[in-house]
Amino acid sequence: AQSVTQLDSHVSVSEGTPVLLRCNYSSSYSPSLFWYVQHPNKGLQLLLKYTSAATLVKGINGFEAEFKKSETSFHLTKPSAHMSDAAEYFCVVRDNAGNNRKLIWGLGTSLAVNP
Amino acid sequence: GAGVSQSPSNKVTEKGKDVELRCDPISGHTALYWYRQSLGQGLEFLIYFQGNSAPDKSGLPSDRFSAERTGGSVSTLTIQRTQQEDSAVYLCASSFQGTAGETQYFGPGTRLLVL
Description:
The structure holds 2 protein chains of 2 kinds. By secondary structure, chain A is an all-beta fold. Chain A has no helices and 12 strands. In chain A, the strands form 3 sheets. In chain A, strands 2, 5, 6, 10, 11 and 12 form a 6-stranded mixed sheet that branches. Chain A is globular and about 45 Å long. The model of chain A has no long low-confidence stretch (mean pLDDT 89). By secondary structure, chain B is an all-beta fold. In chain B, strands 2, 4, 5, 8, 9 and 10 form a 6-stranded mixed sheet that branches. In chain B, strands 1-3-7-6 form a 4-stranded antiparallel sheet, with no helix packed on it. Chain B is globular and about 40 Å long. At the A-B interface, strand 6 and strand 11 of A face strand 4, strand 5 and strand 9 of B.
């Protein structure tokens, strides 16, 4: 069965320092993996996705994530945090077996960026 | 072009009443998804529509929940005899074909409060 674990419910960084949001997944087959961001009072927005191409995926706003099959991880990183990055981040997995169309969502990581 | 829209944006109802939530997907998108996001939780899959195929209702939490999609476009999620535990943000998403790895585009959600 698929599952997603976001290892930190809250992360706090200073502006200009690196961001690391951790995600581990469990999937029976080759998965698709996504990171979504949800700013306060705004809709969910896709940051980036992995779909079996390059293992290092670059997304919007300077974020990137690396798919590591051996570690079953898909951690989200950014070299330098900006105040506008403060939001809730969700790691999502979809098993690509058969007709499975459901996305399995992590519980989210709340990112705070301090001046 | 216009994104996914949902109405109403907020709904307050009394326990036991029925509610209808509406979703207008992006024009041309054949796949439509409903999710529920409870406070402090990740997204919970409810139901998935793909073209003219039978919907995947496996995520509906009880028989009080139902959804339909008329003409392959607009969808309505109905909750009968609402309970306080139904209070959540209900999110609709659409994608072009519903294939693996495809990006889902989310609406702003309907915030439901059951008193």
